[in-house]
Automatic annotation (TrEMBL):
Gene Ontology CC annotation, any one: cytoplasm
UniProt-listed Gene3D superfamilies: 6.10.250.2860, GTPase HflX, N-terminal domain, P-loop containing nucleotide triphosphate hydrolases
Stretches of the chain forming a coiled coil according to its record: 177-204
Name of the protein in question: GTPase HflX
Amino-acid positions noted as binding GTP in the UniProt annotation, renumbered to this chain: 217-224, 242-246, 264-267, 333-336, 360-362
Taxonomic source organism: Kaustia mangrovi
Encoding gene, per UniProt annotation: hflX
Length: 452
């Protein structure tokens, strides 16, 4: 069977001047970004769905045009380029209203995909699990419902993207709202079942004292490469945006023997569609439950500061507020791409912070430092108790081993057992309620001694 040639596309990044940002781009980090880097990112998104990029450019907008977003002169210029280069798709790296998208398609005589649509298309192709595909489909349908210009024939597909790039229904002008809404309702019901199942799995995990350590970060920051390095797993770790979509969890044994569950999550990105954040909330609940969040950053990227701000914004949307930020460890990845004065400066910044590890997931540099930092952070967030049990309290002894980490044990000649036990925050209440005066909370000095 002959392969379909890739769609030829133009990539247009819209750079808003200060006056236009408030009108069209509420993202507060927009002014922090390098526009060339944003164009590169848009090209990366296009390559992620195998487009043949015929050309790309930055279009500066001083005043938003309600009908087309960009000015009429530039619209004509792009239309001519699309005609000359036989382009079938124009990717506009901005958020377009349905009217703007329709008017641009008429002017360009080609399909137009805005940033939200492009991200949804990538997610549609990358999701592998049933849950992942349901989540993406829900976000896509919510987006599509407001457009009334796209087909819904992708609902019959078993794999592939979500129909932006062609298909038998592309000539439909308006999707059937009732059918779409019925499908949205069914998907939400299915996802509610998934959520309840996840809660059961989470409850089962909580019976075992394995804290969750979640990897988060901007897309292509190197999370999956780090996940593979730490767990010897084989998660896809391509140099592509959104190479990982479905969450993966593995056990990881830390240097001093403590076991944790390491969770790899979908990458974040600036202007991540709100519907997509909501759709993936069930998956990202692992982040909320995590004892530690490892925020992986591509420290070599020119927009690393703005990317970090985007991740912080999504975490805030998920409910990780400022009061819980002490659980976040920053992992400055791709140190192997730094050299000279830049590397020296970054190294000095990392050394001055007590929650930063400078690493290279690709070469293994700094991994030992990172693991030591994870151990220290876990120890600081845990509580320690000295517990003395009578010979007849075998069940309590077994329970302490189940819910905590025994740091010291002394078996007396009279059969009594004295333990120093470290327990996660959620187990402090049960320990105090069940053991009462038998459990003595250690002061800070004794804690440091027990941790060492």
């Amino acid at each position: 069977m002959e392969e379909t040639p890739p769609v030829r596309a133009l990539v247009v990044h819209v750079a808003f001047k200060a006056g236009a940002i408030k009108a069209q781009a509420p993202d507060e980090t927009s002014t922090l970004r390098d526009e060339t880097a944003r164009l590169d990112e848009a090209e990366g998104l296009a390559l992620a769905i195998d487009l043949d990029i015929a050309g790309s450019e930055i279009v500066t907008v001083a005043r938003v045009h309600p009908a087309t977003l960009i000015g009429p002169g530039k619209v004509e210029e792009i239309a001519e380029a699309a005609r000359v280069q036989d382009v079938g798709l124009v990717v506009v790296n901005a958020t377009l209203s349905p009217v703007q998208q329709r008017n641009l398609e008429r002017a360009f005589k080609a399909k137009v995909l805005d940033r939200t649509g492009l991200i949804l298309e990538i997610f549609g192709r990358r999701a592998q699990t049933k849950e992942g595909r349901l989540q993406v489909e829900l976000a896509h349908l919510s987006y599509q419902k407001s457009r009334l210009v796209r087909s819904w024939t992708h609902l019959e597909r078993q794999r592939g993207g979500f129909g932006f790039m062609g298909g038998p229904g592309e000539t439909q002008i308006e999707a059937d709202r009732r059918i779409i809404q019925d499908r949205i309702t069914r998907i939400r019901q299915d996802l509610e079942k998934v959520r309840r199942r996840r809660e059961l799995h989470r409850a089962n995990r909580q019976r075992v004292p394995y804290p969750v350590v979640a990897l988060v970060g901007y897309t292509n920051a190197g999370k999956s490469t780090l996940f593979n390095r730490l767990t010897t797993a084989h998660v896809d770790a391509e140099d592509l945006l959104f190479a990982t979509l479905d969450p993966t969890m593995r056990r990881l044994e830390l240097p001093h023997g403590r076991t944790v569950i390491l969770s790899d999550t979908v990458g974040f990105i600036s202007d991540l569609p709100t519907d997509l954040v909501a759709a993936f909330r069930a998956t990202l609940e692992e982040v909320l439950e995590a004892e530690i969040i490892l925020h992986v950053r591509d420290i070599s990227h020119p927009d690393t500061g703005a990317q970090a701000a985007d991740v912080a914004q999504v975490l805030a949307e998920l409910g990780v507020d400022e009061a819980r930020r002490d659980r976040i460890v920053e992992v400055w990845n791709k140190a192997d791409r730094l050299a000279g004065e830049e590397r020296t400066s970054i190294e000095n910044q990392a050394m001055r912070s007590d929650n930063v590890a400078l690493i290279s997931a690709r070469t293994g540099e700094g991994i030992d430092t990172l693991l030591a930092l994870v151990e220290r952070t876990l120890a600081e967030s845990s509580s320690r108790f000295r517990v003395t049990l009578e010979p007849t309290e075998g069940r309590r002894l077994s329970w302490l081993y189940d819910i905590g980490e025994v740091l010291e044990r002394h078996d007396g000649e009279d059969g009594r057992v004295t333990l120093v036990v470290r327990v996660p925050p959620e187990k402090v209440g049960p320990v105090e309620a069940r053991l009462g005066a038998s459990a003595q909370a250690l002061d800070s000095t004794e804690r440091r001694s027990a941790a060492e």
